[in-house]
Every structure is written in structure tokens, then in C-alpha cells.
Write a structure and sequence with these properties.
Residues 602-781 form the Transcription initiation factor TFIID subunit 2 Ig-like domain. Keywords: Nucleus, Transcription, Transcription regulation. This is Transcription initiation factor TFIID subunit 2. GO terms for molecular function: chromatin binding; RNA polymerase II general transcription initiation factor activity; transcription cis-regulatory region binding. With 1237 residues, the chain is of the alpha+beta class. Among the domains are: 17-79 and 88-121 and 165-245 and 297-325, Sandwich (Immunoglobulin-like); 727-752 and 809-933, no CATH class; 1192-1234, no CATH class. Strands 5-4-10-2-1-13-18-17 form an 8-stranded mixed sheet. It has a 5-stranded mixed sheet with strand order 20-21-22-24-23, covered by helices on one side. A hairpin with a 2-residue loop joins strand 36 and strand 37 (1203-1212). 41% of the residues are buried.
């Protein structure tokens, strides 16, 4: 907007905003008004800027005086002329460029009336002190009302800098705006209010982690940091029957607009009631055929803040107005509400009387809201929610709001979105009591949602570069409570897996400080930021505790949250500088190098460690070399990350150079010969660090015979043998001669025992305190890693040992150690699953040229099958016992072993026939009759393993030639695996049909069957099922099934057909569900990735080589083709060039892409995403064709700002004004002749 002026110094702030809304379900529209209390900060304030989208303004008043305003809705700017095409993508993108995340430009400019004077307040010294406290950001606990003279006093603190304490104070201004929204493209999502949608009708705000959503509902200051108090009044029908009954005029009764003096404006001696525009009878109105029971369901309003009023409508008894007050200042993006026939669940009932008494007034009321019939799922899913709030309230600071609400809604894009004391969750995370597979991730999601009320709503990032701090605090709080709820082993396991994932992803990426600027580009960026930022705080906590002994990150977070509550943290905005200063102040340690490496730097260190024992000096000589500069393992360029890579390439987002040296303390723990661990803290300062660590024990390493004696002693003492009895508490099973023969186990040879006896220490642990994120390659004999696995009770040490075992050369001893680990119930279930996977990995690593290759493969297969039979089958039989998953570890291991079996390979690269039949038998004889938990995920695991094994083992039959003379001999089948393949495909199809009759959790059978059919089709084993899969893409199916069907079509290569791409684009454009639309947009990106990278391309016949002077240039042509293939798979420029070559001239794709881009139902971000895709493929054309009907004459006038007006005149043109030359005349004749033909 040309008239908007952007200033760096704020001229005003918002104190309070009141919003009155009238909800019309039948027309899916809102009407209402808002009253904004503006605090001027300068005397000459002349204009106000607000964010406002898709609203129709009917009245704007400032101080009771009608004000002029300039408003340009970005959604209306999206309209393109009828003759436009995809080449005009740049014109369309420029129209909404300033309305896109992350920084939004205000769309509404209000000029203050000249009659409105800014009144300067004259206050005494005492009042000035109070005002100064407010200005500094200190909360005022006293609520002030309008004084006798009508001058409105601020009810909340004005958040300004301390330097403004002695500036003049001005009287607030009341800004009053009436508006209506008839067509929602964003902001609010309506469910059950369209033809064909059989769900309960309800609506909710599409809250988003980024600003821009709330301004689509009503005018406000919708940026990242502007806060104010809120009051929301929502007028709605009382029941569903009232919502879709006979139409009635919608009257909005907002708060009275105040005049210049603060009094209500009067006309003709009567206070004026502001009534919204009359309902347009021509607007489409939906009338649902509801049963009496459904029509009687009451509509419940769930909203941020505390409900303070519920008033029946004086004019329409079928409607009422519910008012909510939020006295804690929050940003506009943290405002959310929902209206629907919700069932209200009291989640606070899990507290017992002792908890209520202990918490007292700090006990927070927790309510859950869901559709009828989902109450039990909400109770099960949110069972820990109340305890989480109580834990955070005791260990950090009180809950920031008066109550907490959790709403579960359909079609949510994100799993959870935080608002002020209110979290809207996707119904996909609802967990029935009989489902245990997603139990842990769902619980962590709920913990994170609660933690974001403190870090995310109460405390916000000061700048985008500070987003990592807020995200890290929320993640750290969540992980720490996960330790309390799930146990220390689960906590350590989660942290180790997170560190491994960060190492894999953090290659050629920006720093986490830079990531805050790019959160709007791709969801994976936020996922990585959440993951790494919490882990950075975890290692910071380890280092702070080591340095100070008492102060860790938890204490620092507590201090920050207390400062936000008391107002010391200005506006609740936390910056990286403030966080670092707080850490250094409380931790009494300088952290510049830490923040430079882990916050402002990118990448992870790679340590190569070598060690040897010097007997003369009695020291352990160690060399630590950092080799992260040599890293070449960037995540591959693949369809699933294609769009993110391309966006970062186009936006010129480059990763900083990897640091050659990471510095900091590292704890090295040496378990010496007597079994005593000695810790040594060394400082890593250089790229190559050489150490000499003193040795303490004078005795040699424990002999094997001594170990056997100690084991027998420990058993005889029934676990009461002191510390020595704990040395062999893990993996010490299946060691009797009979068990060794039955399980085909071997132990160390005498040579190995002698070598072990010569060692001076048991094992060495690098980074024993988990203070680093990266890779540590420690050169150490295998038996030392085995000792670490069996004797170190730290889960991270066991993980490192398992990783080394699986990467070592396959050996019979390795198989024996892994199967003992798998069978020992005392190990954490993650380590046991890792052991099962390790058996398969060792089998895959067997050298085919070795003499005992077949023997080793047979041993690995035998151990896995024997373990499954021992754990889950009747004694001495292959028949599985009825499932019993009362111990969740049994379920995890029972799923892990089949997954590992599917990775086994024989000498031909196939999955052994016995394993394939194993999957069929377990599917056939699965018994879940006495199990209180559903077996749908276990069956899905077996189906996936079966499909994977069939695909790997499939071989195309080779043509055979026989010469028979005399009697006919029976011919061998061309494919001996064909009967088993057919049986397996039939089993998958059977479970797919079962899901159509008896729905499983999230249609897991259908999802798994579609994934299996995709693999089988790509392998050429299943017939073309495109028509059947297409049936699942219809809107009548479940959203997850539809998305899986589209992804299946993309993966099998159907998306290479322009008809399929056009269908996908039309589905995106016409899809009402934001969740499905977002997932289909991701599928579209993957389809483009497949095309760009050349996946699933049909094999083209080799062209005949061209001849030149008798020379064949075949080598040059093939070299260029190879170079092109390498370029498209490794570089963004090459992939874009390949994409242009494939789609640049496809007219059908152009039309479909432009149809989706100009769809009237897409959000601004979705339109911009399509414009970005079009910009990759087609050159921009900054022109528009105008079609004029001849022979009428037209006139044209330039209206300014790129607008041209054409209109007809009365005359008819019969001849050109100037004679045409021969060339133009000939061209016109050719055009006429071509048109007539």
C-alpha cells in the first residue's frame, strides 16, 4: 500500500482489544466489530496501521469520529484477468509479496480525524511513578477503570523501553471497526457445513505458529511481538438445530464506541446500537437434515481466557452470547476459539485430594473438548496433561494463565498449535486405550504442547534469529519431564537417538540461529530446529553442571520464566543475548565459544580417536583428531527433500563453513583392570589433541576363569554379592553347555582369552557425560566393546557398543553376543531391538567369497527364528502363543524381530524361503483373542515385512530352451516362487478388504496395504492397480487413506503422466481440508522430485549414433547423457534443468498449474508456493492480453497504478486509418485463411 509509512520508532501501542463476533454456520460467515484501545506514544500521531485480510469493513471510527481509511485486501489482489496464464506467475506473486510470512506488512491504514486531538495527561509524581512502571513493562496488578472525566487509563502495561519513563503521557484512543467476512480462505475452518460432509458441524480458528492467521478473522496488530489484553464475545446458536434452522437477521451488539471524551456517542439523545448489515437472502445457506438427537446438541464455545458471561439474546431466543476475558497480554496469533457440539471433559479429575491440597491456588483447571463419542480417547490421550502442568508449575513457575483447555479437531495441519491457555490438537493424535504403538510419541507431543504455554506463548522470541531459544526451552522442559514420566533409560535413549539424527541432518545446513528466518519455507526446517535446539540446551546443561556443580539449564529456565511473569523480561521477549547473559551470570562461566560453535555455527564434530597403553610410563596414550572438514555424508538429494533443497537454493540460503575445530571439555572414563572406572576431564582446544592419561591399577585385567567364578558367586549370593555381583548383570544368559548347543552359541577362543588377559583395562568411554553432538570413532578391540555392552549400565554406552558390533566383521562370537542381548529381558527394549537388527546387519555384511559365508548366514537366520520361537511361541513349536502385550517391551520386540528377519539375505540376495513362509504363518495363526490391546500395528508390521521380502526375492523368469525327443517330459515352472508370491499378495489384499468392513485405528490396514501394493507394483509383481488405487483418492474416503493413495500413485510413476498431474493439481485446488491440501501439496513436490531426478522414467530405446565423415560420435553423446544424469541427481541447477525439459512444453500441465494457482479457495501461502513452482519452470511475462470484439471502436484510458480502462464507442471501424503495407496485408490474409480452415 503506497500510503503506509514504515517507521522504526513505535508511535503507539495497543493496550486492549475487544472483539464481538456473530457466527453463522449456515452461511459459514462471521459478522462483528472490534474496539481497540490505542495508547499514543507521540503527540503528532496521525495514522494507525493494522493487519486485516479478507474482511469487508463497514465502519471505522476513531474516538467516536468517522475516520478515513485505506484498505486493500491481499486476497482480492489475487484476482487475475480471464486471459491470464501460468507465465504471469511473477505478477501474481508480487501482488501478495508483502503479505507473506515471516514479516507481514499492514493492509489497513487508518487516518486519524483532524478533529481528534491527542490529549496529554498531567500527572503528579506518584502517578508518574506508576506510569513509569507500566511503561517499563512491569505488570500492574490493579485493574483501573475509566475515570470520572472519561479519560481511559491503561489497564495493562505499555511495553516500551526504559528510556521513555519521563516522556509525556497521552490519553488512550478508542478505535472502533465494524466488519464482516463472508468467504473464508484462511483464519477459520468450517467442518460439516458443506454438502456431502457428514461430520458434526463446528468451526475453529486455524491457529498458526507464525503471525498472519488472526488478521484473517478481524482487524488487529498481527505481528510476532505486539501484545495486549483481550476480551472476546461470541454470539452463536444454542444448538445444532438452531444453527441450521430458519434464517434470522444477525444483529451484533458490540461495546459502545466511545467519543473523543471517552463517553458513548449519542444520536438523538439515544445511545446508538450498531447493527451489522442485514443478512443477504441471496447468499447460499445450507440446511442439514439432522436427527432430533443431533439437533438438540448444545453448541459449546471454547476460547482463550476465562469465561465471564453467558447472556441469552434478547431478540432471538435461539442464540446467546458468551464472553471471555484474557487479562494476560498475548500476541494476536495466540488468540483462538472454536464453536461446536463439543463434549467437555474434566481432565483435572486425575488429581487426588492430596495434590489439590498441596497445590492450593496453583492448581490449574484443565478441560478437554472433543466431538461426541471421543471422550474416552481424550481421557486416555491427555491423561498426563494435568500432571505435566503441576510438575512445571512446581519446578519452574506457575501456569501463565488461569486455566488450560485442549481441543481436538479434524483437518489440522499441525499436530498441535499453542494459543493462550488453549491448545488445538489434531484428532489424529487421539489414542484409544487399546493402541500402544504410538503411545510414547503421542505422550511426548502432549508434553511439548503444554510446555509451549510457558516457552512459546508466555515467553516469545524477540527476533526470528532467537526462535531457537524458545523452541529449545520448550523441548528441554518436555524432555526433562519425559525422564520423570517414562524413566531415565527412555530419556537417555531419546537423547541419543536425537543426537544421531541431528548428526545425520546437520550437513550443509544453516545454523540454528539462522533457521529462525526460514521457518516459513518448509515444515522440515521447524522440525530440525526443534530437534537440535533442545539437544543444544541438553549438552549446555551437562557443561554448566560440570563447571558450577549446582547451576544447570533448568535453573536458568526457571529464572527466565520468573522474569517473564514479574515483568523483568520486557514484553516477555527473549533474545539469544539475554539467554547467554543469564547462563553466564548464573553459571559463572564464559560461554562465547559454546554459542559460537553450537548456536551461530553449523555442523557437528567428528572425532577419530586412537589409544595405546604405554607400559613403561604407565599411561594411556591417546590421540584425538577432528575430521569434520572431510565429511562427505550429506543427506542424499531425494524426492522427499527436493522442494526444501530447491527453495533454499532459490532463496540463496547457504550454510556457513564447517568449523575445523570444536572446543570444550570431554570426559574420558577408563575402566581399569580391577573394574574401577576412573574419569579424566580433558579440554579439546586444537584439531589434533594428544594426551597421556595416568594409569592407576597395579593388577592385570580379570581373567576369564576369574570372571566365571565371580559369576557363580553372584548367582549363589542371589544378587547380594556387593559391587562385584553387578559386573555381570547383563547378557549373562544362555551360557550352560546344553544351552550353547541348543542355541549354537560359541564363546571366546583361548587365543582371545589370552589376548584379553594381556590388556591393562576393560574398556574406555569417550564423552562419558554426553557433552557432545557428533561422531566419535574410537579404535578399540571388539572384546572391549563387548565388556562395555555387558558391564556398563549406561544406555548410551550400550548403544555405542551395539553400533560397533553391527559394523564389525561378522563372526560366530558376534552372533552369540547379539542373540544373548536380544534374549536378556534386563536390557532396555531399544537395545534388544537393536540387537535383533544387528543380527540381520551382520548377515548382510557376510563376504560372499569367504569360505564360511553360508554357515554365518544360517547362524544369523537360526538365531532370529529361535529367539522368536522362544519368546512368542509354544514350547518346542512354531505355533505362536496368543499375544500378550501387558508388558510394552514384548510388543516392541515382537515387532522388531520380524523387521530384522525381512533384512536377511541368502547367497542369491533373496530373503530365505523359510523366512517368507514364517511371515505367512504368523499372519495366518495370529491370535489376539485374549490380548487387551489391538494387534493392528503388529499385523501391519508383518504385512510390510512380507511385501519387502517378496519384492527382494522376486526374479523375472528367464527364457529356457529345451530339446526333447520322444516322450514329453514335465516342464519345471518358470518361477518357483510364483505360488508363494500369489499367496502373499492375496493376504495383503485380504487385509485391505477387511479394513473396509471393520475399520482399524487410522485405517492402518489400508495404509499398509497401499504401501505394500506400491512396492509390489514397482517390482512388477502385481498387476497394474492404478484404477483401484484411484478409488481411494475420492473425497469420501478417510484423509490419511486419500493421502496414502496419492503417494502410492506418485511412487509407482503414475504422476509422470500429465493426466495424473492435472488430477492431482485439481484435487489440491478443490480440497476443503487444510490437512489434506497440505499433504497433497507435499505429494506434488515429491512428484516433481521424481521427475527432476529421473526416478521411474520409462526406458527409452537407445538412439542410433550419428555419423560424421565416417566417425561414430557415440562416446560423446553417452558422456553428455551421463553428465546430465549425474547433474540432475546431485545439484539443484541440474534438477531444475531436467524439470524444465520434462514439463516446460506440457500445455496440459500449464493449464492445471495455473488453475490451482488461481483457485479461489487457497491461502496466500499456498498461492505463493504454486507461484514459486511456476517460476522454476516458466519465464515470467509481465503483460496481459486484452480481447476486443471487432469491428467496434474502443477507447483506452490509463487510470494509474497499472490499471487500464477499455470501453466501446458507437462507431464501427470499416477500414484502417493508415494503409497497410504489403507484408501486413499478406499476414492478415493468411490469418483469415487459417481461421476459416
Amino acid at each position: 500500500m503506497d500510503g503506509i509509512q514504515h517507521t522504526s520508532v513505535p508511535e503507539y501501542s495497543i493496550l486492549k482489544q475487544r472483539v464481538d463476533l456473530d457466527v453463522d454456520f449456515a452461511r459459514r460467515s462471521l459478522k462483528g466489530s472490534t474496539e481497540i484501545t490505542v495508547q499514543p506514544l507521540v503527540k503528532d500521531l496521525r495514522q494507525l496501521q493494522l493487519h486485516c485480510r479478507q474482511c469487508t469493513l463497514t465502519s471505522v471510527q476513531a474516538g467516536g469520529i468517522t475516520a478515513k481509511y485505506e484498505y486493500e485486501d491481499p486476497y482480492r489482489r489475487l484476482r487475475m484477468p480471464a486471459g491470464s496464464n501460468v507465465h504471469q506467475h511473477e505478477m501474481l506473486k508480487e501482488k501478495v509479496l508483502h503479505s507473506l510470512a515471516p514479516r507481514l506488512r499492514p493492509e489497513l491504514l487508518i487516518a486519524l480525524p483532524p478533529k481528534l486531538k491527542i490529549q496529554e495527561l498531567h500527572v503528579d509524581a506518584g502517578s508518574a511513578a506508576v506510569t513509569a512502571a507500566r511503561v517499563s513493562g512491569t505488570p500492574n496488578l490493579e485493574r483501573h477503570e475509566t475515570d470520572a472525566d472519561g479519560v481511559a487509563i491503561a489497564e495493562t502495561p505499555i511495553l516500551a523501553s526504559a528510556g521513555q519513563h519521563h516522556l509525556p503521557q497521552f490519553a488512550p484512543i478508542k478505535l472502533f471497526i465494524e466488519f464482516e467476512v463472508d468467504n473464508f480462505r484462511d483464519g477459520v475452518h468450517w467442518i460439516g457445513s458443506e454438502e456431502g460432509d457428514k461430520r458434526y458441524p463446528y468451526m475453529y480458528t486455524k491457529a498458526s505458529p507464525l503471525p498472519g492467521n488472526t488478521s484473517c478473522i478481524f482487524p488487529c496488530v498481527d505481528n510476532a511481538t505486539a501484545r495486549c489484553t483481550w476480551e472476546l464475545s461470541i454470539r452463536c446458536p444454542r444448538t445444532l438445530g438452531d444453527a441450521f434452522g430458519k434464517s434470522s437477521a444477525m444483529t451484533v451488539e458490540p461495546a459502545e464506541p466511545l467519543g473523543v471524551d471517552g463517553n458513548a456517542r449519542m444520536e438523538n439523545g439515544v445511545a446508538e446500537k450498531h447493527t451489522a448489515a442485514n443478512t443477504d437472502p441471496s447468499m447460499p445457506q445450507l440446511s442439514l437434515d439432522l436427527s432430533e438427537e443431533d439437533a438438540a446438541l448444545e453448541l459449546v464455545v471454547a476460547c482463550v481466557g476465562e469465561q465471564i458471561d453467558d447472556v441469552a439474546d434478547a431478540e432471538d431466543d435461539t442464540r446467546h452470547t458468551v464472553t471471555f476475558s484474557l487479562t494476560d497480554p498475548v500476541t494476536a496469533r495466540h488468540i483462538a476459539f472454536a464453536v461446536g457440539p463439543f463434549e467437555r471433559i474434566d481432565l483435572s479429575s486425575v488429581r487426588d485430594a492430596d495434590d489439590e491440597e498441596r497445590l492450593g491456588q496453583r492448581a490449574v483447571k484443565v478441560d478437554g473438548f472433543c466431538l461426541p463419542g471421543r471422550g474416552d480417547q481424550v481421557r486416555n490421550t491427555c491423561y498426563p496433561a494435568t500432571r505435566i502442568i503441576d510438575y512445571f508449575g512446581v519446578n519452574y513457575t506457575s501456569f501463565p494463565f488461569s486455566s488450560y483447555k485442549i481441543l481436538f479437531a479434524d483437518d489440522m495441519v499441525h499436530d498441535t498449535v499453542a494459543a493462550a491457555g488453549f491448545t488445538i490438537c489434531s484428532s489424529h493424535i487421539l489414542l484409544p486405550a487399546d493402541i500402544i504403538e504410538p503411545l510414547e510419541p503421542t505422550t511426548r507431543t502432549i508434553i511439548r504442547a503444554v510446555a509451549e504455554q510457558w516457552a512459546g506463548v508466555s515467553v516469545i522470541a524477540k527476533e526470528p534469529s532467537d526462535a531457537w531459544v524458545v523452541s529449545g526451552i520448550a523441548g528441554y522442559m518436555s524432555d526433562l519431564y519425559g525422564k520423570t514420566l517414562l524413566g531415565n533409560n527412555a530419556y537417555r535413549w531419546q537423547q541419543k537417538l536425537a543426537a544421531e539424527k541431528v548428526y545425520e541432518l546437520d550437513a550443509d545446513r544453516p545454523s540454528i540461529s539462522q533457521h529462525g528466518h526460514y521457518l516459513h519455507l518448509d515444515p522440515s526446517i521447524r522440525e530440525f530446529l526443534d530437534l537440535k535446539s533442545a539437544l543444544v540446551l541438553f549438552i549446555l546443561d551437562r557443561r554448566l553442571l560440570k563447571a558450577s556443580g549446582t547451576t544447570g539449564v533448568q535453573r536458568i529456565i526457571n529464572k527466565i520464566l520468573v522474569n517473564a511473569t514479574t515483568g523483568t523480561l520486557e514484553n516477555g521477549e527473549l533474545s539469544t543475548v539475554d539467554f547467554q547473559r543469564q547462563c553466564e551470570k548464573l553459571g559463572h562461566n564464559k560461554l562465547e565459544s559454546f554459542f559460537r560453535q553450537w548456536v551461530f555455527g553449523a555442523g557437528c564434530p567428528i572425532f577419530q580417536v586412537s589409544q595405546r597403553f604405554n607400559k613403561k610410563k604407565l599411561v594411556v596414550e591417546m590421540t584425538i583428531l577432528q575430521r569434520q572438514i572431510e565429511r562427505q555424508t550429506k543427506p542424499p538429494f531425494a524426492p522427499n527433500n527436493f522442494m526444501r533443497e530447491i527453495k533454499e537454493h532459490v532463496q540463496e540460503i547457504w550454510a556457513p563453513e564447517t568449523l575445523p575445530v570444536f572446543t570444550g571439555p570431554m570426559t574420558i572414563r577408563i575402566h581399569e583392570a580391577d573394574g574401577t572406572p576412573y574419569e579424566h576431564i580433558v579440554e579439546i582446544k586444537e584439531q589434533t589433541t594428544k594426551l597421556e592419561i595416568p594409569y592407576n591399577t597395579k593388577y592385570k585385567r580379570l581373567k576369564r576363569s576369574r570372571r566365571q567364578k565371580d559369576r557363580a558367586m553372584a548367582e549363589s549370593n542371589n544378587g547380594e554379592g556387593g559391587e562385584e555381583s553387578l559386573l555381570y548383570c547383563l547378557g549373562d544368559i544362555l551360557d550352560s553347555p546344553e544351552e550353547c548347543r541348543e542355541w549354537n552359541l560359541v564363546d571366546w577362543t583361548s587365543e582371545d582369552e589370552d589376548r584379553m588377559g594381556q590388556e591393562s583395562y576393560e574398556w574406555i568411554r569417550m564423552d562419558a557425560d554426553f557433552e557432545w553432538i557428533g561422531k566419535i570413532h574410537l579404535t578399540m578391540p571388539l572384546y572391549m566393546y563387548v565388556s562395555q555392552l555387558q558391564q556398563d549400565r549406561d544406555l548410551v554406552a550400550q548403544y555405542d557398543s551395539m553400533r560397533y558390533l553391527t559394523l564389525a566383521n561378522p563372526h560366530h562370537v558376534s552372533f552369540s553376543i547379539l542373540v544373548r542381548t536380544l534374549m536378556d529381558h534386563r536390557y532396555f527394549h531399544g537395545i534388544r531391538a537393536m540387537a535383533a537388527d544387528g543380527l540381520a546387519i551382520l548377515v548382510a555384511r557376510v563376504d560372499p567369497q569367504s569360505s564360511n559365508a553360508d554357515e554365518l548366514r544360517t547362524i544369523g537366520q537360526f538365531h532370529l527364528m529361535k529367539a522368536f520361537e522362544e519368546l512368542f511361541c509354544f514350547p518346542g513349536e512354531n505355533m505362536p502363543r496368543p499375544n500378550d502385550w501387558t508388558n510394552r517391551a514384548n510388543f516392541i520386540v515382537q515387532c522388531a524381530i520380524p523387521r530384522s528377519m525381512a533384512k536377511l539375505r541368502d547367497g542369491e540376495g533373496k530373503v530365505p524361503l523359510a523366512i517368507r513362509r514364517f511371515f505367512m504363518d504368523k499372519l495366518r495363526f495370529n491370535d489376539n483373542s485374549d490380548n487387551p490391546f489391538s494387534d493392528c500395528h503388529y499385523v501391519a508390521t508383518l504385512l510390510t515385512c512380507l511385501a519387502d521380502s517378496l519384492v527382494v526375492s522376486h526374479r523375472e523368469p528367464q527364457p529356457t530352451y529345451t530339446f526333447s525327443f520322444g516322450e514329453d517330459e514335465p516342464m519345471e515352472p518358470e518361477n518357483p516362487d510364483e505360488p508363494l508370491e500369489a499367496e502373499g499378495i492375496n493376504a495383503i489384499e485380504r487385509y485391505r478388504r477387511i479394513d473396509e468392513w471393520e475399520t482399524t485405528y487410522h485405517n492402518i490396514y489400508s495404509l499398509t496395504a497401499l504401501e505394500c501394493l506400491q512396492k509390489l507394483t514397482k517390482a512388477g509383481m502385481a498387476k497394474d492397480k492404478t484404477s483401484e488405487v484411484l478409488q481411494y483418492t475420492r473425497p469420501a474416503n478417510a484423509d490419511l487413506v486419500r493421502v496414502a493413495a496419492f503417494r502410492c500413485l506418485v511412487e509407482i510413476g503414475v504422476a509422470r503422466k500429465m493426466s495424473m498431474m492435472a488430477y492431482l493439481l485439481h484435487c489440491i485446488a478443490d480440497e476443503p481440508s487444510p490437512f489434506v491440501r497440505g499433504r497433497l501439496l507435499a505429494c506434488f513436490g515429491e512428484a516433481l522430485g521424481h521427475i527432476a531426478l529421473g526416478d521411474s522414467e520409462p526406458v527409452q530405446p537407445r538412439p542410433q549414433p550419428a555419423e560424421a565423415d565416417g566417425l561414430i560420435l557415440e562416446q560423446a553423446a553417452s558422456s553428455e547423457a551421463r553428465q546430465f544424469e549425474v547433474s540432475r541427481k546431485t545439484t539443484p541447477d541440474g534438477a531444475i534443468a531436467a524439470l524444465k525439459a520434462a514439463l516446460g512444453n506440457e500445455d496440459r500441465f500449464k493449464r492445471a498449474l495455473w488453475y490451482a494457482t488461481t483457485s479461489p479457495d487457497l491461502t496466500l501461502d499456498e498461492v505463493a508456493a504454486f507461484c514459486d513452482i511456476a517460476a522454476l519452470l516458466y519465464p515470467a511475462v509481465a503483460s496481459a492480453k486484452v480481447t476486443l470484439k471487432l469491428p467496434r471502436l474502443y477507447r483506452c484510458k490509463h487510470l494509474g497504478r497499472g490499471k487500464m480502462r477499455f470501453w466501446q464507442t458507437g462507431s464501427v471501424k470499416t477500414a484502417p486509418r493508415k494503409p497497410l503495407d504489403s507484408e501486413d496485408l499478406q499476414a492478415i490474409r493468411m490469418l483469415v485463411r487459417r481461421t476459416s480452415v
